[in-house]
């Protein structure tokens, strides 16, 4: 971790803070037809959250021609978190997007969203975490009591915090949350306005670069081991009417994910080529940290798999913590017929 921190410590502060809307230039949209002369199908895809290294695999799939080979002309747009991505996909403004799967369960179980399905896992374990820095007297979950944390109101980290707090023995009523914009969260932590922020564990290198301090990370996965991380979603309508199209897109995206994990620096450079604010060292470091979350003992060597039993356990965890207003089943949120098999 120290090595990674040193690697990115020289990254520019302004660049690390900026979330830039991505343009759609790339090798698979340079013409309107695929290699076989067939017209490419135009698709809009949303990243999970901005254009950090953790989402660079979509740009890799575009740049390396994986989307084009599958018959797609893909426009990549930066997502703004689980709730917003679901809304945009269900509303028809995007065909696919990436959300935190636990956040999706919370949305469905609390009547805040419907008409979408997950079709592949990006990470087999949740990457949600509270991130602080040395000097804030935070070393364990209990230390969060009396502290001020910042995150966007719709963030899965914030929405899942009551469940995390209950399981970790934290009195959530003694923790103060303030609203923060995604682009400025790390700057808020760096300036000392808050004691911690909602963040994914892979954000450690960028936090180190921005704050110039050693990050202190409290991963939610330490107390909630059955929760998945991000997942690819589409609308229920698309899944029902175009299942083969969904499978082709999923396979191309996961090919980009696998390539990115094997070639993190190249993936970071591809992201930089498309998103100018990218700090390549931080993006590559994020991918290196993310690699351990993409595969698990349950999925073996396969990428993207979703297991009904594990999803049921995740639902049980949320129900046990009182985080769901209504009962839900895995099939309400996952289309297991379209998901990759272990």
Please provide a written account of the structure:
The chain has 342 residues and is of the alpha/beta class. 40% of the residues lie in helices and 17% in strands. It is built from 15 helices and twelve strands. The protein has helices at residues 2-8, 13-17, 56-63, 66-69, 82-90, 101-109, 156-168, 185-190, 204-211, 236-241, 243-262, 264-274, 280-294, 308-320, 330-333; strands at 41-46, 49-50, 72-77, 79-80, 96-100, 116-121, 128-133, 148-151, 176-179, 196-200, 215-219, 230-235. Helix 7 (156-168) links the parallel strand 8 (148-151) and strand 9. Residues 1-31 have low confidence and may be disordered.
Structural descriptors:
five-stranded mixed sheet; alpha/beta; 15 helices; 342 residues; disordered N terminus
Secondary structure layout:
Layout: H1 2-8, H2 13-17, E1 41-46, E2 49-50, H3 56-63, H4 66-69, E3 72-77, E4 79-80, H5 82-90, E5 96-100, H6 101-109, E6 116-121, E7 128-133, E8 148-151, H7 156-168, E9 176-179, H8 185-190, E10 196-200, H9 204-211, E11 215-219, E12 230-235, H10 236-241, H11 243-262, H12 264-274, H13 280-294, H14 308-320, H15 330-333
Parallel strand pairs: 1-3, 1-5, 8-9, 8-10
Antiparallel strand pairs: 2-4, 5-12, 6-12, 7-10, 7-11
Question: What's this entry about, in short?
Answer:
Helix content is 40%, strand content 17%. With 342 residues, it is α/β, with parallel strands linked by helices.
